[in-house]
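Hey, resending since the last one bounced:
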Amino acid sequence: MTLSDVTTRELRELASRYPQSRSALLPMLHLIQAAEGNVTNEGIEVCAEILGISAAEVSGVATFYTMYKRRPMGEHHVGVCTNTLCAVMGGDLIFERLKGHLDVGNDETTEDGKVTLEHIECNAACDFAPVMMVNWEFFDNQTPESAVEVVDKLRAGEPVKATRGATITSWREAERVLAGFEDGLADEGPAAAGPSLAGLEIAAERGWSAPTPGAVKAKPTDVADTKVEAVEQADTSRAESETKQEEGKDD
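The structure tokens again:
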């Protein structure tokens, strides 16, 4: 057994947070990664035992979601979005530059163990394309040059902040946060900025506002209340359409 007593205790604590303990599986797997560096076979067995489910069920979840890794990860995870918009805006160029600069392929780790590089299908930040993430923190509006600068600082152990202000820790520390254990850095940086707020700013300038919650709109008079009325309306509409067609032929 390599899983520490502390980690096992925390896994049980996570399971106790939910009315149905198996709902804790996702954060538990993140905690395994925080402690072990990846989802290990032992971690799968321990999760299964705590939750009272089979190891196969746990393994099925761990292999379905790409955030769970079955191989040891580097100190930092760098994910470059190569989905359509980011790719068009330069994501493919960033990914190719980083592969050459780090001398790794997709989902591979540098020889010094500092960086694992992965292409990501979507970072859900299209308004800041091209985007990459470091330990799940956003780096917006990247270029090949800025991406190289970020990974060089990470490998040198220099302090790095995401473009939205968050301090970059390590992948394992980020995984612990995803498991549900706070690191005291939750308020760093804005939750939204720039292009994400454009619609809200336009609405404020023009005096637009959302409908009042619970407000009831008047029902159009031509909407049927029953199935019989709907059929009658359909028949009437069809008859009117056919009449117009016949009149058009007569003309």
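The chain has a mean pLDDT of 89.

Sorry for the duplicate.
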